[in-house]
Design a protein that fits this description.
Largest sheet: 4 strands, antiparallel
Distance between the termini: 16 Å
Number of strands: 12
Radius of gyration: 17 Å
Strand content: 35-45%
CATH class: Mainly Beta
Shape: globular
CATH topology: Immunoglobulin-like
CATH architecture: Sandwich
Length: 163
């Protein structure tokens, strides 16, 4: 269902490092690619967010499939979820203590009830996680994503895909 798979996202890194992507196919084969990334920092800064506003906004999803959709061919799909993605390493400006971790840990995509892909997210992903990927719809149907966070909250969004 993924065909010639491509994925784009945003990550946060404190120092220069290699980023590795590990993928597992439906038949259990593992593949890995790596790329060296030059970092600008960003993992341990201070936090001064309004906690009630952060929690009220968390989990709002935007899901989009580019037009036109041609069944049997790759279609560009964009997923974005509002979430602060706290690592647990940021300092609170008032108490100078650490702000508890609060992040999306998984996003599972299905099409017509069949798995498309599952992404293990985590604290290395930047605020408001974003994924852009190709998948191949075989017929009209429903693309659905279910995202979970480290506190056990679940967020879902559906999108009807028509040709």
């Amino acid at each position: 269902m993924l065909g010639n798979f491509q994925l784009a996202t945003r990550i946060r890194m404190e120092t220069d490092s290699f980023v590795r992507l590990v993928g597992e196919t439906a038949d259990g084969k593992l593949y890995m690619v790596k790329r060296e990334i030059r970092a600008a920092g960003g993992c341990g800064g201070t936090v001064d967010n309004d906690e009630s506003a952060v929690r009220a906004a968390a989990g709002k999803i935007k899901l989009h499939v580019d037009d036109p959709v041609k069944f049997g061919s790759p279609v560009v799909t964009t997923f974005n979820i509002r979430h602060v993605m706290r690592t647990g390493l940021q300092r609170d400006l008032v108490s100078q203590g650490y702000v508890p971790a609060f992040y999306i840990n998984k996003a599972a995509f299905t099409y017509n009830g069949k798995p498309v892909m599952t992404v293990d997210v985590g604290v290395g992903t930047s605020e408001d996680p974003y994924f852009k990927f190709n998948f191949i719809p075989d017929a009209p149907g429903t693309l659905e994503v279910t995202a979970t966070d480290n506190e056990g909250k679940t967020f879902t969004q559906q999108l009807d895909v028509k040709g």
